[in-house]
Amino acid sequence: MNAESTPLIFQTAALSHQGCVRSHNEDNYVALPELGLWVVADGMGGHEAGDIASDIIVQEMSSLGVAVTASDQRARFLERLDRAHHRIRAHAAEHDLDTVGTTVAALMVFGAELSCAWAGDSRIYLLRDRVLTAMTRDHSEVATLLAEGTITPEEARSSPRRNVITRAIGIGSAPQPEVVTGVARPGDRFLICSDGLTEHLTDEDLTYVLGAGRDAQQAAEHLVGMTLERGAKDNVTVVVIDAAAAGDDPDEGG
Fold this sequence. Notes:
Phosphatase 2c, domain 1
């Protein structure tokens, strides 16, 4: 299939909530369907640190501009991610802060060619033909142990170390995002979320909500609502993106 032959349009819904326990929200997101870019960032470092780190991601990505190819789009994203990384490190140094950083999970689509880039444990999912697929794999201690077979999925979900991530923007000398590519199709539904969602909702929950016939806004609201009902120990951010063939939807790009 030629990725360039099936241009897509998108409907987007995005919500962020501080949750039931935290006093402030360190999550941020950016949704730029006109540029084919959606990003969730989950900051760490406390008030005036984690929230600033995730906001720096949003600031940098907002200047992405119009790409001419999918590879150009990825290059623009990675350049801005590098700038964000060094800005976060500079902020930490200026204010004598030990640990300031942010996860990032970004979906990019050019034509119908998609790219997922991420660092940390914020995730990107694809619901296609009612089957949910994780497009990312967590950069975390627990994910490593799970991949090695050292712990079971049940142990991973209850581990006190489940929120310890092994990659983050602003931590280390250089950003280390992971990137995968593929092809998006009409009818695809994507979810980008911080770990405040997946701490409380299973893949089965996500499949049910995303596949239950709700529009993007309704799905996003339902996901956040379920998380709040279950205690929302962390900030929670969701971005739901529905893809359609260009010309199929009169409300394109919203």
